[in-house]
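User: Sequence recovery, please. Input:
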């Protein structure tokens, strides 16, 4: 990509980069935010906060890196953000926010959750009809149409070189844009052809084939995508993180941070970092803890995370995260470990770093996971990790070499893996963490920015 010809790009995600508190008037009527806002005039933590989730944590650092390297010119990001200003200007990026009326958000959310749950193996088609011909799907299509129209209007003004669309919520955008300019689509969640109902396949393959390039996270998903019927250019790129965003807080700060969550100096800590969602399977970790409770009386399970954009009050307002947290708390009481299962809720990056530094090891017990960047975070903090064999990142894990693999449905096996790290025969945990550092380099911004830059160059050059 010639450095003297930077690309103008439009990125599209469902989850926005920034969340804004929902302002209300004295009579509890939501106050419409201003049309345009400069981020430099706002205070983080008061006026806005960064969204949780892997997609935004990948896309924003990537755009900054490519802009720093003079590979990007105009960069615009369109997302769903009902309570945000219509436009927010950052130093080298402009955010554009789509608003759906509350009465339409619910139906859109139903479709999104149906696709999410089905692809993650948490629900099956009930045979009552084709989702893509349902009344609720009309609201999903309406949201995609609103988004496509906004992208069209921006393209008329900025004449983008390409469009980079992210994740299944935006699947129909490629069809609706109707442009000959390059359209890239990144599928972030698991992809298994066998999990997708037959009645969905014609619509989904049609939508996917409107993109010139589709990017997935693992070799397995790549093979499945081709089997499913995608005929364009398919690419595997590992998800990644920006290691410069992570730090090692001093011991006093680490101790004070985790003590607020209930961790005492003498405790051993198993850490799960994930939003509150049944797909993340924190309940398997709770059950494994109960198996170890008597043998390891100082062991505590720290569950870090809150809801996603879908469950945030400033997002789609779905209540699944609160319900799941209540279910986990009830399970802990039932198994008599309620004082040893700790919930941190949403944490800042600095607090997250402290949790990683304090833990003995981490767990990713998900029943299905598109990738699992928390494993890479764990490796970055030099912590051993236990990884669900159903996670995409399991492709990078060699059992007892750079991590421990487990079937999360087998809580006895999960407890055994935890026991091995607690007793630490022959320094197992240290060896796993040391060997994982080399693997981690496959998922850093340094590696990703080169791969993504090449991907964009090839898309534009044809």
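Assistant: Recovered sequence (462 residues):
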């Amino acid at each position: 990509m010639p450095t003297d010809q930077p690309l103008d790009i439009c990125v599209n995600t469902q989850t926005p980069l920034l969340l804004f508190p929902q302002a209300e008037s004295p009579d509890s009527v939501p106050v419409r935010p201003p049309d345009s806002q400069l981020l430099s005039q706002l205070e983080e933590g008061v006026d806005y906060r960064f969204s949780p989730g892997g997609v935004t944590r990948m896309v924003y650092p990537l755009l900054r890196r490519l802009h720093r390297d003079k590979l990007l010119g105009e960069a615009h990001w369109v997302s769903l953000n009902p309570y945000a200003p219509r436009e927010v200007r950052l130093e080298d990026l402009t955010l554009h926010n789509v608003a759906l009326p509350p009465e339409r958000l619910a139906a859109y959310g139903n479709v999104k959750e149906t696709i999410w749950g089905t692809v993650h193996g948490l629900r099956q088609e009930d045979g009552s009809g084709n989702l893509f011909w349902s009344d609720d799907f009309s609201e999903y299509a309406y949201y995609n149409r609103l988004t496509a129209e906004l992208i069209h209007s921006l393209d008329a003004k900025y004449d983008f070189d390409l469009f980079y669309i992210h994740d299944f919520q935006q699947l129909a955008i490629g069809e609706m844009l109707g442009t000959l300019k390059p359209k890239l689509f990144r599928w972030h969640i698991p992809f298994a052809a066998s999990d997708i109902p037959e009645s969905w396949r014609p619509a989904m393959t049609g939508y996917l084939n409107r993109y010139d390039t589709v990017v997935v996270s693992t070799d397995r998903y790549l093979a499945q995508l081709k089997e499913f019927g995608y005929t364009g250019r398919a690419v595997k790129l590992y998800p990644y993180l920006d290691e410069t965003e992570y730090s090692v807080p001093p011991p006093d700060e680490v101790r004070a941070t985790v003590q607020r969550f209930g961790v005492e100096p003498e405790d051993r800590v198993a850490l799960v970092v994930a939003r509150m969602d049944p797909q993340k399977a924190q309940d398997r970790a709770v059950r494994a803890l109960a198996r170890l409770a008597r043998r390891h009386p100082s062991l505590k399970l720290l569950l870090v995370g809150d809801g996603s954009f879908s469950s945030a009050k400033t997002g789609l307002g779905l209540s699944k995260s609160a319900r799941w947290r209540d279910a986990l708390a009830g399970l802990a009481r039932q198994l008599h470990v309620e004082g040893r299962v700790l919930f941190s809720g949403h944490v800042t990056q600095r607090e997250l770093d402290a949790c990683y530094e304090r833990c003995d090891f981490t767990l990713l017990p998900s029943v299905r996971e598109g990738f699992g960047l928390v494993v890479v975070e764990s490796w970055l903090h030099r912590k051993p990790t236990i990884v669900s064999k159903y996670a995409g990142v399991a492709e990078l894990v060699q059992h007892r070499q750079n991590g421990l693999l487990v079937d999360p449905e087998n809580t006895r096996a999960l407890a055994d893996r935890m026991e091995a790290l607690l007793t630490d025969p022959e320094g197992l945990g240290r060896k796993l963490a040391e060997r994982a550092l080399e693997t981690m380099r496959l998922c850093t911004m340094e590696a990703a920015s080169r791969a993504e830059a090449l991907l964009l160059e090839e898309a534009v050059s044809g």
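Residues 135-158 form the longest helix (24 residues).
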